[in-house]
Amino acid sequence: MGEEAQIPEKVKLLTPYKVTAEMIEATENEDVIFLHCLPSFHDFETAMAKSQMDLGYDIREVTDAVFRSKYSKVFDEAENRMHTIKAVMVATIGR
Fold first, then answer.
1. What does each C-alpha distance from 21 to 3, 16, 42, 85, 95 come to in angstroms?
2. If both were cysteines, with which of 21, 43, 50, 87 could 64 make a disulfide (CB 3.0 to 4.6 Å apart)?
3. Could you report the per-residue pLDDT of 35-50, keeping only the tens digit for each?
4. pTM of the model
5. Burial environment of residue 42 by CB neighbours within 10 A (0 to 12, 13 to 18, 19 or more)
6. Which residues, 6+ apart, have CB-to-CB distance to 68 below 8 Å?
7. If 0-12 CB within 10 Å is exposed, 13-18 middle and 19+ buried, where does residue 72 land?
8. How far apart, in whole angstroms, are the C-alpha atoms of residue 39 and residue 95?
9. What's the pLDDT band for 14 if we cut at 50, 70, 90?
């Protein structure tokens, strides 16, 4: 965010690290878990992803197939983070 001018460079640098179904399968582990702290680019439904794809840049960090798979625990992770943040707020505000 705010570094749009660096997108071509970052796509070139980070594409080999995109989490794909092939990567998940390569683990040969049926219990593998995919986590992401969100938000993520996983499809082309956002204006940013669409516009960058039109320019020839696939900015997805993870494919939608993985993001929506049985291996994905991204929403559980996000929910847990929310509760952790609330606990930190309560601890720092005091009662």
1. 28, 13, 12, 31, 47
2. 43
3. 998 889 999 999 999 9
4. 0.76
5. buried
6. 42
7. buried
8. 32
9. very high
